[in-house]
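Structural prep section.
Before we set up the soaks we want a predicted structure of the protein with NAP in place, mainly to decide which crystallisation condition to try first. Input record follows.
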Amino acid sequence: MGPLVDKIALVTGASRGIGKAIAQRLATDGAFVFVHFNHGQAEAEATLGAIRDRGGQGAAIQCDLSAPDGAHVLADRLLAALRRDFSGPHFDILVNNAGIGRGARLAETTTDEFDRVVTVNLRAPFFLIQRLLPHLRDGGRIINISSMGTRAPQPHMAAYAPAKAGLEVLTRLLANEVGGRSITVNAVAPGATVTDMNPRARDPVAARAIAAATALGRVGQPQDVAAVVAAIASPDGGWITGQTIDASGGQRL
Ligand SMILES: NC(=O)c1ccc[n+]([C@@H]2O[C@H](COP(=O)([O-])OP(=O)(O)OC[C@H]3O[C@@H](n4cnc5c(N)ncnc54)[C@H](OP(=O)(O)O)[C@@H]3O)[C@@H](O)[C@H]2O)c1
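Run finished without errors. Recording the tokens verbatim:
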């Protein structure tokens, strides 16, 4: 019996990387987890397989969050699944994790790339929250995955870091708005984490340089970030809201 037993969670971008680790961890802690994916159907099924192998529960749900109406499509699909498989269209934990990080400097960023980065990292969470808030139970959790790039932005994060900064401001704004329902809203800001998005963290030479600039002396693993998300999602996290919680092991302090 984990701390999230009887809770229902949606984790966006849970086919790979940090989202996969979050989905697995929340399921291990007892939640039924909707594993959202876009292209990675096989990967999402693998995430679900790993969840079920450990006695957890979940279901996969597809949606392209770069589409203008992506958040609305995902909300409709989630609510339909909740109506079909549960007692009603209510759930407990929303993790806005799906993200893209086009590595481009200001001068190289096209308007199309800018729009895509802002759409997936900020617009989609914004409208997903707007649509799903009425269905989030009192005492629920909204957890937005940001980036250490808002604290220590690099030139190649020209569109990405401002989009994540917007997500953090939205986090604080919403915390005030929904606090009366005992819903907490927080952002988690990973540092360099070993996933497809961050090939540098996989490269041994680059990883050594990252580790040397990190208080805890290594690059992050998806499970490190998932543990922080699980802590906020748990009942013990109920007094933390409106915060951006660094999950970088102390990178570039
Ligand atoms: N890795 C890092 O070093 C790092 C550092 C700071 C912050 N972060 C943040 O952590 C989060 C997870 O990153 P990650 O490193 O785990 O990335 P990743 O391994 O590249 O995985 C990205 C996930 O997002 C989904 N996604 C991408 N574009 C999408 C779209 N258009 N519509 C719907 N889903 C989409 C992918 O789904 P499909 O594969 O199914 O298409 C995948 O599940 C992101 O918000 C990222 O900004 C990562």
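Observations: Residues 13, 15-19, 37-40, 64-66, 97-101, 120, 145, 147-148, 190, 192-193, 195-198, 201 surround NAP (CB under 6 Å).
Flagged for discussion at group meeting.
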